[in-house]
Amino acid sequence: TVDALHDKMSESIPETEQMISKAIIAAFSEAHSELSDTSLSSNADPVEVEADCLRRTFQWIKKNDEGVACPDFEESRCAFMQSIVNTMVSHVRHDRMSVADSSQIMLSVASVIGLKVKGFIPRDRIILSNLDNQVTRENIIPQMQVFGDVEAVSVTKRGGFGVCRFSSRLSVDLAMSAARRGCFIINNTVPNVHDLEPPLRFLSKEEQAKKQAYSCSPTSSSDSPTSVNGFPNEDDTSLPDSLTGMVSALEF
């Protein structure tokens, strides 16, 4: 199964090919202890693992706020992605998670930190940060169901951070638009709401120009970079006409 993961990720994120190989060697090494504790559950909840990995990702982003302007940025980004790859390979190695789930988590992280990803990434989830530490998934689910069918929700054990997976991209657009209008409140707290797009400052100047040109294009769709109360596209406050009526009707 780890070989299948290697092939899948090498194709989807070419920059991770050597990372996967290193992680596989480490996972089969007797000296490797990360996530190999037999006291851990035989199965890992993919949404919980994704939420924790994305929490770690956002912490890393905050520490690297200057983005590509920092001389050690690429080295730091590769080292961080290696840590995520190590975690996912270990889960697959010990049969705690499927290749499909672990590869999706790596794709999500790679997308958020600005690595080049080939192929399709489901834009069916939102990331919630700055949540009240007392918020639970039970608090979040009813709020998210306003936007559409919810497939899964997870809040990290350390609190303050969560992930919600919807059954469609439209629900993500509605949630982002509601947040943009200041209508997104959970337990009297206004969280930061993000999708899987990277901060523009984490992209090369050429990629930034392409993103900005696309977002300004009359033909651009809801696939343009969006985030509310945080990165990556803080100055994007537009609301698609097709969603205006639906968002206006939402009540919290």
Summarize the structure.
Helices cover 46% and strands 9% of the residues. The protein is of the alpha+beta class and 252 residues long.
Keywords summarizing the entry:
about 250 residues
Overall geometry comes to: globular
Q: Please give the count of helices.
A: 9
Structural class: alpha+beta
Strand content: 5-15%
**Element order: H for helix, E for strand:** HHHHHEHEEHEHEH
Distance between the termini: 44 Å
What would you report as the Rg, rounded to the nearest angstrom? 18 Å
pLDDT averaged residue by residue: 79
The side-by-side strand order for the widest beta sheet comes to 2-3-1-4-5
Let me know the largest β-sheet: 5 strands, antiparallel
Low-confidence stretches: 32-41, 219-252
Query: What's the β-strand tally?
Result: 5
- Relative helix content: 40-55%
Structural summary, described in words:
With 252 residues, the chain is of the alpha+beta class. The protein is built from 9 helices and 5 strands. Strands 2-3-1-4-5 form a 5-stranded antiparallel β-sheet, sandwiched between helices. A hairpin with a 5-residue loop joins strand 2 and strand 3 (161-166). Mean pLDDT is 79; it is low at 32-41 and 219-252.
